[in-house]
Amino acid sequence: MKTQYETRYASSPKAVKAYDTTQLREEFLIENLMQEDQLILVYTHYDRYMAGSAVPLSPIKLETIDPLKSSYFLERREIGVINVGGDGSVEVDGEIYHLTLKDALYIGSGKKEVIFKSDDKNNPAKFYLNSAPAHKTYPTKKVSKSEANKIELGSLETANHRTVNQMIIGGIVDTCQLQMGMTELKTGSVWNTMPAHVHDRRMEIYYYLDIPQDQAVCHFMGQPQETRHIWMQDHQAVISPPWSIHSGSGTSNYTFIWGMAGENLDYGDMDVAKITELR
Question: What's residue 265's pLDDT?
Answer without folding.
Answer: 67
